Amino acid sequence: MKKRLGVLVGEGGNWRFFEEIFADLARHYETRVYAARVYATPLLYGRLNRWAMRHRVRSLLRRSDVCFFEWASELLAVATHMPKYCPIVTRLHAFELHAWAPRINWERVDTIIVVSDAMARRFAERYPQCADRLRVVYNGVSLQRFVPAARPSGLELGMLCTVGPHKRVYEAVLTLDGLRREDGLPARLHIGGSWSGDWESEDYYEALCHLVRRLGLDEHVVFHGHVTDPPGWLRQIDVFISNGYREGQQVALLEAMAAGCCCFSHIWEGAEEVLPAEYLYASDAQLRAKIGEYVRQPEEERGKRCARMRAIAEARFDIETTKTTIRAVIDETVAGLGRGR
After folding, report:
1. What residues does 29 pair with on adjacent strands?
2. How far apart are CA 21 and CA 15, in angstroms?
3. In angstroms, how far is the first alpha carbon of the chain from the final one?
4. Predicted confidence (pLDDT) per residue in 156-193, tens digit
5. Residues linked to residue 69 through DSSP beta bridges, in sequence order
């Protein structure tokens, strides 16, 4: 008989990194998914919706053999301040460590999946009592969806992310300007992704547009907005840049590697778990030097670089491995508690 697995997806139902994993879980467990119910009653709007959320979370906990929380955020915070009804497994990506972790009763969480060794260290520093409940499971990408293709003949740079200050897109535009003006490289920058919609994000986007106009880069910076077909979008990219100052383990970077792009990353904590040292940079000058060195190589050598990216993705970031490992973690959690862990 299949175990009853309750699934609760936080962040307003953000399934971006979870859809394929859930499909696998649904084949192996009797899954029940938390569904929010929103009441529009003006007078009691906030109070009624908070009650409904707590009621539905409690009901799912009671009816499940184990519950899995994708995003260690609001739903997990609510669940962990209720009586213990069933084992709880959660997957924490990055931002939750500051935004939500202090509000969670970690004594109620049986297993905490994090996406990198760096994230495990950061979590254990703040919650050392939970260190023995941490499991590192790398993010994964579909090697069938993201496949290498013939690379563009020019120098097409790409970033795929939610456009905001922490992704340092502004700085990437300045890097592009340096590549063109000082290094004499005919580079173009493609920016894929939308912005969050708050005033700070909108202000940042307007500043980006102003910078592009001021530097005369209108024909060399392309804002694509929300990208609905990442595999197709990546086929036009020669060099992918991960320029953020903080990441959990950037899925877009893993996708670009699987697609055979040459990838360079800023030295955010954990980047060394993804890329070899020669593909990491600390400064704009280092990034420009690495891009220049890559583009001036013979086509055959550039092809080898791209093949290496694909090989790393195959060896370390296959979604099939991620699926299998998460299932094993869930089963081990239930079995461990059954033995009186």
Report:
1. none
2. 10
3. 23
4. 999 999 888 889 999 999 999 999 999 999 999 999 99
5. 8, 90
Mean pLDDT across the stretch 213-239? Answer: 96
Q: Dump the DSSP string for 128-151.
A: GGGGGGEEE----B-TTTS---PP
- In Å, how far from its chain's centre is CA 307? 23
Give the pLDDT confidence score for residue 72 in this predicted structure.
Answer: 96
pLDDT digits (tens, 9 = 90+) for 253-278: 999 999 999 999 999 999 999 999 99
**Stated pTM of the model:** 0.92
β-pair partners for 33? 7
Q: Tell which CATH classification among 3.90.79.10, 3.40.50.2000, 3.30.930.10, 3.50.50.60 matches the domain 155-316.
A: 3.40.50.2000
Q: Which fold has domain 4-140+319-338?
A: Rossmann fold (3.40.50)
Residue 260 has what DSSP assignment?
Answer: T
Q: Are 4-140+319-338 and 155-316 in the same CATH fold?
A: yes
CA distances for 71 relative to 8, 100, 254, 266, angstroms: 9, 10, 19, 25
Q: What tokens were used for 182?
A: 């000082």
Nearest in space to 138 (alpha carbons), one of 329, 339, 335, 321? 321
Ranges of each domain in the chain: 4-140+319-338, 155-316
Going from the C-alpha of 219 to that of each of 113, 186, 190, the distances in angstroms are: 43, 11, 11
Tokens describing residue 150: 């013939």
**Pick from 87, 124, 79: which is nearest to 105 by CA?**
79
How does residue 340 score in pLDDT terms, banded at 50, 70 and 90? very low
